[in-house]
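re: ur question from earlier - yeah i can do the single chain one, its not a big deal. heres the input i used so u can compare w yours
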Amino acid sequence: MVTALLVLLGLAVFFAYEGLVVGDVEVPAQGYIAMTIGIAFSLVIGIGLMVLVFYSSRRGYDEQVTILGRRPNDDDPPPPSDSRPQ
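and the output i got, formated as tokens:
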């Protein structure tokens, strides 16, 4: 398993290197600026979402819903369904 993953990593590095060293193609300064802004934006969004996940978990927003101050258990009957004709 580890060998297969290392082979995949090696292939990814090889293809990334080959893709970056194209030859006589020049990337303008605007391309590097756009790439930097895109990477920074992606990092900000990813880090921000992870912060929100941990914040909501630690504050208890991910806990089970309580009804009228008590926790539902398995013996409670299911809530009535809305069976009115439409």
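Residues 34 and 49 are 22 Å apart (CA to CA). not sure if urs matches, ping me
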